[in-house]
Amino acid sequence: MINNDLLARYALGDLSAEERQRVERERLIDNETREVIENDLIDSYIRGALSPPLRQLFEERFLDTPEKRHRVEVAGLFMDPALRARVASPAIETLAKGSVRSFPWAHIWATKPIAALAGLAMVGCAWLALQNRHLRAELHEAQAQQVLRRQIDDLRRQLADRTASAAGAEKESNSQTAAGRLTSRPASISVLLAPGLLRHGGANRRGHLLTIPAGVSYLVVRLSLQRSDYPAFVAILETADGKQIRRIEGLTSIMGPKNREVDLSLPAQLLAEDEYIVTLSGVGMDGKIKVLDLYSLTVAR
Q: Is the terminal CB of the chain with fewer CB neighbours within 10 Å at N or C?
C-alpha cells in the first residue's frame, strides 16, 4: 500500500528504481499529480507534520533551488491563520496547493465580494512584500559583489605596482653593484722594459722613467725576453743600492705584441720614488738557475 511517507519520499527522490516505478504505476503519476504531491509535501513541511528524517530530507533536496524556496515562502504566507480568517478558506487552501484552476471564483465573488477583494489585496501586498525582500537581497548581493570586485582590482593594481617597484629596485641595486664592482677594481698601469738598460747614473742614464699617479694600486712590469727556451723564470726586484724588495718564482713567459715576455704584478705601494733593477733568471729542466738579463726602472710619484 502506498502511504503518505512513501509519496513524500517519491517527491524527494529517495526511492529505489523499483519502488518509484510501482508508485508511478499505481498512482498514474503525471505532471499534475506530481505537482499535487509536491504541494501536499510543502503543506506538511510548513505545518510541521513531517517526521524528522523526512524534514531533513526535504530541506536537503527540495529547498535546493531559489524557485522551490520561493514556493515554500508563498505557501507559508497563505497558511498564515490571520490571512485565512479574512478570506474564504477553500480558496486559500486551493492556492496553497497550487491548484489555481479549481479556485471557486464565482462562488466567492457572489457570496463575499468584499472579503474576496480584501483577501486578494492582502495576498497581493504579501506577494509584493516578498518580491521586494527578494529584490533587496539580490541588490545587496550585487552591491557586495561589486565591492568585492573593486577590492580585487585594487589588490591586483597594488600587487602590480609592488612587483614593478621591486623589479626597479632590484635593477637599480644590480646597477649599483656593477658600478661598485667597476669602481672597486684596483687601477693599474703597465710598463714594458727591454733588457740591458742601465739604471740612472752618469752620462749613460738609460733607465726607464715611470711616473705612478695617485689612485694606482698595481703595477705590471713586462720584461721583454731575448731567450724564451726556459720552462720557468725567477725575477728579483732590488733597489739600485742592492736592497732586495721582492723575489718572484714560478714565472712563465707569454707572447707579447712583438716578443715573448714575462709579466710581474707588483703592488704600487711597494715601489717608492727610487731606482730599481730587475734580475731575470731562467730555470732549466734540471732545476739549475741561470741569470739571463737585467732591467732598469726609475719610479717617480
A: N
Is residue 282 very low, low, confident or very high in pLDDT (cuts 50, 70, 90)?
very high
- Taking only the tens place, the pLDDT of each residue in 234-277 is 999 999 899 999 999 999 999 888 889 999 999 998 999 999 99
Count helices and strands (H / E) in the chain: 9, 9
C-alpha cell at 230: 726556459
Look at phi and psi of residue 70 and say left if phi exceeds 0, alpha if psi is from -120 to 50, else beta. alpha
Three-state SS for 226-240 is: CCCCCCEEEEEEEEC
Residue 158's Cβ-side half-sphere holds a number of Cα atoms within 13 Å equal to 6
Of 34-38, 69-73, 205-209, least confident by mean pLDDT is 205-209
**What domains appear along the chain, each with residue ranges and CATH number?**
4-148 (no CATH), 188-300 (2.60.40.10)
For residue 47, the tally of other CB atoms under 10 A from its CB is 9
What grid cell was written down for 212? 705612478
**214, 223 Cβ separation under 8 angstroms:** no
CB of 296 closer than 8 Å to CB of 192: no
Query: Sheet containing 244-251: which strands, arranged edge to edge?
Result: 208-211, 289-300, 274-283, 232-239, 244-251
Contacts of 97-104 spanning 24+ positions with Cβ under 8 A: 97/36, 97/39, 97/40, 97/43, 98/35, 98/36, 98/38, 98/39, 98/71, 99/36, 99/39
Length of the chain equals: 301
Cα-to-chain-centroid distance, residue 82: 60
pLDDT in tens, 41-63: 998 899 888 899 999 999 988 88
pTM exceeding the 0.70 threshold for the entire prediction: no
